[in-house]
Amino acid sequence: MTGIEKEIVHQMRLEGNSHSQIASSLGISVNTIKSYCRRNTLPVGGIDFTPAETTPRCKQCGKRLVQDPKRKTKRFCSDVCRYSWWDTHRNTMAKKTAIKQTCAHCGRPFESYDNEHRKYCSHACYIKDRFGGTDAHDARAV
């Protein structure tokens, strides 16, 4: 956008015009206008939104978050808040379906959540089957 277009956007936002009205009058994409207004925190209809009001808050405790530039957007203020939020919202997570399989070494049934091509119930069974041995589930450490 040119400097003149930026001034027009500022003026029209002060008058209370919407993003789509500004975009259609200037012949610029609506998304360009939205991102410009967001980056420059332009007031809408004379109401100035300070960055403190638009600052994201922690999903658990509501504390204001300070975002680091060029980093992933923070959703929690600390690990404690993140752990407690996920503990209380377990039912909202997408559940994976388990695939029932049988271990190629010991013959025990096991469930695999991530890999349908998995052959062994544990690393110990893989080592015993690949490199030899008698029982993968004995008392000794592998």
Give a written overview of the molecule:
This protein has 142 residues and is mainly alpha-helical. It folds into three domains: 3-51; 55-91, no CATH class; 99-131, no CATH class. It has helices at 3-14, 19-26, 30-40, 51-54, 79-88, 123-131, and strands at 99-102, 109-112. It has a two-stranded antiparallel ribbon with strand order 1-2. The N and C termini lie far apart (66 Å).
Radius of gyration: 28 Å
Report the biggest beta sheet as strand number plus sense, adding barrel if it closes.
2 strands, antiparallel
User: What level of helicity do the residues show?
Assistant: 25-40%
Structural class designation: mainly alpha
Q: Can you write the helix and strand succession as a string?
A: HHHHHEEH
Poorly predicted parts: none
Number of strands: 2
Shape: elongated
End-to-end Cα distance, whole Å, is: 66 Å
Beta fraction of the residues?
5-15%
Number of domains: 3
Please give a handful of descriptors for the protein shown:
single chain; 142 residues; mainly alpha; 3 domains; two-stranded antiparallel sheet; 6 helices; 2 strands; elongated
SSE layout:
Layout: H1 3-14, H2 19-26, H3 30-40, H4 51-54, H5 79-88, E1 99-102, E2 109-112, H6 123-131
Antiparallel strand pairs: 1-2
Helix pairs in contact: 2-3
